[in-house]
Amino acid sequence: xxANSPSExxxxxxxxxxxxxxxxxxxxxxxxxxxxxxxxIGMGLTTTVILxxxxxxxxxLRNFIPDRVRMPAYIVVVASFVTVVQLLLQGFIxxxxxxxxxxxxxxxxxxxxxxxxxxxxxxxxxxxxxxxxIGMGLGFTxxxxxxxxxxxxxxxxxxxxxxxLPLADAAAGKVGYEPITIFILAPGAFFVLALLSAxxxxxxxxxxxxxxxxxxxxxxxxxxxxxxxxCKGKEAAVK
Amino acid sequence: MKELLLIIVGSALVNNVVLSQFLGLxxxxxxxxxxxxxxGMGGAVIFVITLASFVTGxxxxxxxxxxDLTYLQTIVFILIIAALVQFVEMFLKKSxxxxxxxxxxxxxxxxxxxxxLGVALLNVQKEYNILQGTVNGFATAVGFTISIILMASIxxxxxxxxxxxxxxxxxxxxxxxxxxxxxxxxxSGLI
Lengths: 239, 191
What we know:
The structure holds two protein chains of two kinds. By secondary structure, chain A is an all-alpha fold. Chain A has helices at about 5-15, 25-30, 35-60, 70-90, 95-100, 110-120, 125-155, 185-210, 230-239, and strands spanning about 160, 160-165. Chain A has one domain. The radius of gyration of chain A is 19 Å and the shape is globular.
């Protein structure tokens, strides 16, 4: 695939540099709202819209924003789109608005968005940046929906609100699934993500043994690395 | 007074910002390798969040509400926080160099700490007045500091343990955080 073409950008965002599993960015919403699969999709698509719009806008403005004030400028662009999306959700999808609550305005500080603005949109043409945003957003949506499905299935025996595992009913003497409620509470989020990243580690160790270079732009696994210029340099070098 | 005490216990222990609301998770996982740096980060967070929740509270109550501009809160709050962090950094560098030496590296990281913006937004959502909001901010930051220092001291011990290869690094930290989160459930009986 040609570098920076729309399809290459989509592939890159969804698989190669998946923001959640590979870049380990945006952990706060990943853990907080994945109590159900539909919350995951809602949060993911909201973030995708904001990410695509802000990437496009920042790429269009990249020759006008002075280098020294670029971070505040990016924050204002992102915060404006977040406010627009927040008002739209409040007006048209109130159920999603109330279930995501405070985590919608907190998309502003989601490292994926500022990270992509800094690492990609500020250096590339508008169309490529738009598709980079869409790709990254869909990658994020995919991974948090997966985490949501796992937590909802184990914690409540449901997927997308549908009861897939029939629940046990002791009073009626019915045998069935006993939901492990802790998985839809806070600790469950940590456990599920721990298992998923352990699986990822396992695969990476396997790949290293088979002689495949496991290098990827993972920077120690947290948003704290967003402020870390070393990581950004590394990420830019990979491109 | 009783109300303020309830806010303090509630925000610092029962609804711990990291372990039950997942705000400020990034520094919690990233800067918890040693107790010293964790304490430094905690100090910087207490300082910035208390100040930020006071300033955002004042601006929300005195400017945004009278002018009917509350829909701008996200943009205004994040700009205030970014400016405040810059300002605090410059102020400390000039007047309290020793504190700047101790907190310096952590200050820029705080702008992207979702706990700061989160507390400001929660104060609005819970309709706290300026005093309650500031106290809530302080208590939340203390809760953050408690959990990051606990986490750092556990991680210092974990280093000497024999952990399965796949679980080394990030996964074992998350599992520890999960167990801590279960332990913090115990506090919910306090209120």
